[in-house]
Structure formats: C-alpha cells, structure tokens
Amino acid sequence: MKRKGVMNIFANKQKLFGAAAAFVMMFSIVAQPANAKTANAKLADGTYQITTAEENLALNKDADFEDKKDSDAQKWSVSSDEKGYLKITNVESNQVLTYKDKQLTLADDADSKAQKWQLKKTSDGYQIRSVYNSKYSLAENEKAELENAKGKAESFTFSETEKTQTWTGPVLSASAGSVEGPSGRETYYNLDMSGVVSAMQAAGIEGEYWVREDGVKMYGDYVMVAANYSIRPKGTLIETSLGTGIVCDTGGFASVNPTQLDIATNW
Fold first, then answer.
1. Confidence of residue 16 (pLDDT cuts 50, 70, 90)
2. CA distances (Å), 14 to each of 31, 120, 131, 151, in order?
3. What's the confidence (pLDDT) of residue 143?
4. Is 23 helix (H, G, I), strand (E, B) or coil?
5. pLDDT at 48 over 50
6. 2-161 to CATH, choices 3.40.50.150, 2.80.10.50, 1.10.10.10, 1.10.3880.10
7. Domain Ricin B lectin spans what residues (predicted)?
8. Domain boundary assignment for the chain
9. Higher pLDDT, 12 or 267
10. Torsion region of 243: left, alpha or beta (phi above 0 gives left; psi -120 to 50 gives alpha)
11. Residue 244's closest CA among 259, 265, 263, 230?
C-alpha cells in the first residue's frame, strides 16, 4: 500500500488557558503551542526507518508513505549538531528533508536552518518539528497540503536499522541461469510455494508471501531462498544478488554444493 504525495507539514496553533487546560493536559494528548518551552527529545546519530505511529507506514525517498520494506529508499541517516538539531538524509537519494514555503521538500544538503529538525516526545513516538519555523511539523495526509493541528500532534517512530549492503557483482536472471553471488553460487527455481509458506508460518517465522515486480518470490521483506539446512537453517537471513534473502526451503542440490542458494522466482 503506497500513499501518493502524502507528506506535508501542518501548523500547531492550539492554545490552552487556565486550570481547565491543565486538567485536559493530564488526561489527553494535545498539540503543543508553537512557542512551548519544552526540551528537545534526543536521538542518537544513526540510520533509522521513520514510520507513522498509528499505521506503521514508512517514509520513503519520495516523501510518500508505504508498507515497511528492507530498502535504502526507506532508510534515513540522522545526525545532530551542537544544538541538538537534526539533519535527516535519505540513504538512497542522499537528499535531505527540507522546509520550504510551509511545505516539505527533499533537497541537496545545503547545511541550512531549513534542513534542521527537532523532536518533541509524544505518548507514542515523536513530533518532528521544523527549526526554521517551529509552528510546522511533519504530518501524514492523503493530500500534500497544510493542516491546522486541531487534535494531538502527529507522531512518528524511529526504528534503528542498517544501510543495505549493495551488491555490485553479477545479478541472477532467467537469461543468466546461475551466477556467483555474495554468498556463493545462485540458481533459481519456480514451484508452488504454498507448502513452503505454511511450513514457515508453522515454525513461527512471520511473513506474507508475495511476488516482486521482477518475478522474485518474497516472504515479508526478504527474497525466498532454498539452502543447505545443516549450515543455513530455516529462517537464516543471507545476502543474495537480488537482495537480502531468507532461507525457507532446501533441495537435492545441497548435497552436491553445500553453499549453493536456489532462489524462488516465477521465471
């Protein structure tokens, strides 16, 4: 599920007055006024997936939200300056989240105030607020437009991850037949995977079966791989020329070449 152009920025304008407001603050989560003197939440420098707190959709390099995948397009390098302000850079495109004319864009790194962000802790994650104009914070919506924050502040979670290791060697394809990949010889096969999927789920390894656009069969975020169970047990994650794989099957080839991988495709 992909949300087209759903990243925008919205204004925080809610004001609270008197004891009644204090009572509300005790029992509900509301958007902070733009000038609220709350301390910035700290986040260690690193690589993260940024997801919506409510729907668990991941922010990608196009400023869209989509289901989480193990892809550099959904990974963000977060670094802080001496004031604790964050720069948020997409790992794949190397472009930086940028505030421009009350809208969110991605741009080349200019080391500018418009590319600095601060976090405010919420009950279920963080509000990501612009340093350039603290009235505005990131939000997910069906349209790329401004919204007035009438309810609770939009919340996002940061899940630490690692940059995907990019394979620069030969890539398995129907025409290639077999290649030497990052973890050994690779071949491919095309069989009904329903039994394999059932066995994975029975083993408590969660995931959904689907077929990638290039015909590679997937289990969750991972390429489905057959391997030698004695050295690569079911559920093992392993690098292939087609992306990170998960061992979910085996075959007679394993007795001939113990390090060979047979990759499930629809070719």
1. very low
2. 6, 16, 18, 9
3. 33
4. helix
5. yes
6. 2.80.10.50
7. 46-170
8. 2-161, 179-264
9. 267
10. left
11. 263
